[in-house]
Amino acid sequence: MSDLVLENIDLYYHRVHALRDLSLTVREGEIVSLLGNNGAGKTSTLSMISGLVRAKTGRARWGDHDLLRMQPWDAVGAGLLHIPEGRRIFSTMTVHENLLLGGYLVKDQKVIARRAEEAYELMPRLAERRGQQGGTLSGGEQQMLALGRALVGGPKLLLLDEPSMGLAPLIAKQVMEIVQRVNAQGTTVLLVEQNARAALKIAHRGYVLESGRVTMQGSAAELAADPRVIEAYLGA
Ligand code: ATP
């Protein structure tokens, strides 16, 4: 099984101790949500997994891969895709060109074309805007495009940073439903969300980070019912 297992991770940015003895597991097939306030270490956790920053100590494995030794591009080739906050689509390229770029490490053009069509089926709004420049899309559509581009890469494990950031509630809900469908089709998801309510709705399990440490963990239902989580992250 290609579970993601982080053990006793410590990560520093010079003197800033961003992750402290962090351990967490994402089992193959799960959606796991990371909750926490600004600066808690959520983005750092994703960046460490995808190899953009390096942990000082600890172990990070994904199936047979040692993530602390793996180069980010090799991770992408193996199906570990990270959609950072802010989406970063190419604004002067069309929706379709953006989608195809997601297949830059996929050799078979037919596979790329098929996955692009699957992305359009999942997100018909993108199909309607196929020839439109990325920069002219709404925030929600840009998030869908970022997801679609990752899907063309054939993700096995998807790291998603704040997909509902800045979106109107209804659009955010649609994006979360798409994430849920992507998961149902076989992609494991590690989801960072400020909107804890929305995240716990689609997640199987979750972890709460505070100042770089895991302070709570459990099933999504357990966390959603925990008075500390309700007070700190779900509002009264
Ligand atoms: P946010 O939701 O605001 O992105 P977060 O939970 O994702 O917060 P991180 O971005 O992982 O938190 O930040 C964790 C800690 O590391 C914070 O104290 C932050 O200031 C610090 N940090 C993050 N990136 C850097 C960097 N490149 N250089 C120095 N410190 C950093």
From TrEMBL:
The ABC transporter domain, residue ranges: 4-236
Matching SUPFAM superfamilies: P-loop containing nucleoside triphosphate hydrolases
GO molecular function terms noted in the UniProt entry: ATP binding
UniProt signal peptide: none
Entry-linked SMART domains: AAA (SM00382)
Matching InterPro entries: AAA+_ATPase (IPR003593), ABC_transporter-like_ATP-bd (IPR003439), ABC_transporter-like_CS (IPR017871), BCA_ABC_TP_C (IPR032823), BCAA_Transport_ATP-bd_LivF (IPR052156), P-loop_NTPase (IPR027417)
Pfam families: ABC_tran, BCA_ABC_TP_C
Keyword line: Amino-acid transport, ATP-binding, Nucleotide-binding, Transport
Family: Belongs to the ABC transporter superfamily.
PANTHER family registered for this protein in UniProt: HIGH-AFFINITY BRANCHED-CHAIN AMINO ACID TRANSPORT ATP-BINDING PROTEIN LIVF (PTHR43820:SF4)
Name listed for the protein in its UniProt record: ABC transporter ATP-binding protein
Organism: Leucobacter alluvii
